[in-house]
Amino acid sequence: MIPTKLMGALTGLMLSLAVSEPAAARQPVEIALTFDDLPAHAPLPPGETRLGVAQALIAALKAAKTPPVYGFVNAVQLEKEPASAPGLDAWRAAGFPLANHTWSHVNLNQVTLAEFEADLLRNEPVLQAKMKGQDWRWLRFPYLAEGDTPEKRDAIRAFLAERRYRIASVTMSFGDFAWNEPYARCKALGDEAAIRELEDSYLKAATDSFDYYRALSATLYGRDIPYVLLMHEGAFDARMLPRLLDLYRQRGVKFVSLDQAERHPFYRADDKPAAVAAPVTLESAMAARGLPLPPQTWSLSTLAAVCR
Length: 308
Ligand SMILES: [Zn+2]
Fold this sequence. Notes:
Blueprint: H1 4-26, E1 29-38, H2 50-63, E2 70-73, H3 76-80, H4 85-93, E3 98-100, H5 113-122, H6 124-130, E4 138-139, H7 150-162, E5 166-167, H8 180-189, H9 192-221, E6 227-232, H10 235-250, E7 253-255, H11 258-261, H12 282-288
Parallel strand pairs: 1-2, 1-6, 1-7, 2-3, 4-5
Helix pairs in contact: 2-4, 2-10, 8-9, 9-10, 9-12
The structure holds zinc ion (ZN).
Zinc ion is lined by residues 36-37, 101, 105, 142.
């Protein structure tokens, strides 16, 4: 004898499975991988090089047979760390494209529009030189900051549209950047147990965020959008990428190019000359519908204290 309330719940569950399961089985989850802060991100562990990090990332991407993956460049690093330069050439030699992340990683919410535009333009000669004849006109906003006032948001979009840029949105992220600094500290200390814990928490964050953004998309649209995943060119990302790509593969992910992902109507705001009503992230899409965000089950808060 099943109580009526439970029976109702079971029927609802069976209905939802009947509706969503075959679609889920047919449709792989599409993710476009993107890497920020080329050619140098976060401190390096002792004995590692920027080129070595780039080569490890490239090898993992090649082994997983991903489509070409965009790397977003801050060319200021070529002056700060000249030894990082070969990493950009390795990226290109692998057939992977480069695009703009501004010259010095400026936050549009903290500088004037004119300062931001000048910094973005200062980054272009390197991209032009390395991407001859190919499409480098994508911008990934540093800190994902698109402007702190409606006027600024409109103005930067007008500027970008005039220069034929598209905005590389982010619709999946687990805060991968935050593991790179503690990793460098743990490596310097030779603390292998702490590094194993970093590995575990990194993979848990990736798993949880995958479920989290899929749940937002399911709530909003009843299905997956193609996701654009934010990653960084850090030493721990390089160490973990083979396992991370495996994790996604095991969950039925198909890797697609940024261009392919952004063809989906969700990203229609990304090439508009003015700020539009369409949301640019899944979080903002939830807010626009007045829906509360579910709690995140992964956290970066303990990483700052690791290997101090
Ligand atoms: Zn960045």
